[in-house]
Design brief:
The structure is a homodimer. The first copy, chain A, is α+β, with helices and mostly antiparallel strands. Chain A has helices at 10-13, 17-27, 33-37, 44-56, 79-86, 89-96, 98-103; strands spanning 31-32, 60-65, 68-73. Chain A contains 7 helices and 3 strands. Chain A binds a DNA duplex through helix 4.
Chain lengths: 106, 106
Amino acid sequence: MPEPGETPDVFHAIAEPKRRHILDLLLEGERPVQALVAEFDVSFAAISQHLRVLREAGLVARRIDGRKHVYSAEPEALDTVLEWTARYRPLWRKRLGRLGRHLDGQ
Amino acid sequence: MPEPGETPDVFHAIAEPKRRHILDLLLEGERPVQALVAEFDVSFAAISQHLRVLREAGLVARRIDGRKHVYSAEPEALDTVLEWTARYRPLWRKRLGRLGRHLDGQ
DNA sequence: ACATTAATTTAGATATAACTTAAATATTAA
DNA sequence: TTAATATTTAAGTTATATCTAAATTAATGT
């Protein structure tokens, strides 16, 4: 039972490579669970459990269509990660010079 | 399929809240281990172990000064995270409109 | 109603992570 | 050289993650 911590933890959710891969697949468009399972070498249940972690972190949304559960990416949830990472850009920029400023969109 | 541990795993390193907090402290400037330990409610050894994970992920550097080991942030290592996250910005932008474009630095 | 399909949940096994205390290493100070 | 300081590494414990197989829920098809 993958207990998803008290707080929906986006950082924890994307720490697992399979979960990042799931998100990458969903980036191309929404998919039912079976289509995701087909991309991995683990059981249906394992993917379902990963989807739960992603959903509780707000990284994916689920739309139920008959007996198909269709998942889609919710990239807004990555905001937390982007914001935390962005706090390092000043230091980064200082060290890298022009390249850093470019990454900063300036 | 992305295998875990293929490379020093930055995503895993920043998944742990205490490790993010350590990085946040180092963002203000380099510090010896004792100064970091003082900010937490765990043992010296625990922090030392977290520092090892961060160092192996390339997120911190260590400078040995006498019997002090002075750590500093290596924000370039967050590049991996920023790049992966950035792949979601097109979808994001599409959904959020102007705000998305702003985040994109346009 | 019953079987089939799609997915989730539960239970249990095993692996990995995070912590503690104690021992080890290395540097400085008496 | 012995003691004190600063940190790491090792050993062992406990907690958490991830996986499989089996049970469960729910919708569809016959």
